[in-house]
Amino acid sequence: MRSIGGGDVGHFPDVPCVPDETFKTEITNLMAAGTDIEGKLVKLTWAGNYEVTSPDNGDIPDGQIITCEKDSYYGYILGVRLFHYADQNSNHHTPVNIKTLKYSGMVGLHNSVIITGDNFDVVANGSTGGWGAVIAKDITALTVDVLC
């Protein structure tokens, strides 16, 4: 029998994320004060690839920091255990994985996706329908990483 406080159960995507500028400053200050970063709850920003920030009071958290490493380019690389996301239509989901797909047209971060074209191998912005949420976009490779 499982007891309360026995830890996480099930499989959650553990994803390397980066803090936005505000959160980067907050992490630096917390570290200087000797405060642990691991365990802190975060929210996806949808403003940059794999970007998270510190949630506001009353927000629904999207994940929890499980590791924090200094990085010369991003400031920090955060290992985040994702357990929630809201798609562009404000529907709430529990993430299971991330799928990389080719895209066409105006696909942005946070967009859900639908199939487009006659080859059935490319996605486009799902607008008011669609599936998942784009968590990263590579404009050189014309691919998106879809949180689903």
Walk me through what this model shows.
The protein has 148 residues and is mostly beta strands. Helix content is 8%, strand content 40%. The protein has one helix spanning 21-32; strands at residues 14-19, 41-44, 51-53, 63-71, 75-82, 85-86, 92-93, 98-103, 113-116, 122-125, 133-138, 143-147. It starts with 13 loop residues before the first strand and ends with a strand. The relative contact order is 0.18.
Q: Helix share of residues?
A: under 10%
Major sheet strand order: 1-3-2-4-5
List the helices and strands in order: EHEEEEEEEEEEE
Structural class: mainly beta
* CA(first)-CA(last) distance: 31 Å
- Global outline: globular
How would you state the average pLDDT, rounded?
A: 94
Our estimate of the beta-strand percent is 35-45%
Please provide the count of β strands: 12
Q: How many helical stretches? A: 1
C-alpha Rg (nearest Å): 17 Å
Largest sheet: 5 strands, mixed, barrel
**Low confidence ranges:** none
List the helices and strands and how they pair.
Layout: E1 14-19, H1 21-32, E2 41-44, E3 51-53, E4 63-71, E5 75-82, E6 85-86, E7 92-93, E8 98-103, E9 113-116, E10 122-125, E11 133-138, E12 143-147
Parallel strand pairs: 1-3, 8-10
Antiparallel strand pairs: 1-5, 2-3, 2-4, 4-5, 6-7, 8-12, 9-10, 11-12
Structure summary:
With 148 residues, this protein is mainly beta. It is built from one helix and twelve strands, in the order βαβββββββββββ.
Any descriptors?
148 residues; mainly beta; five-stranded mixed beta barrel
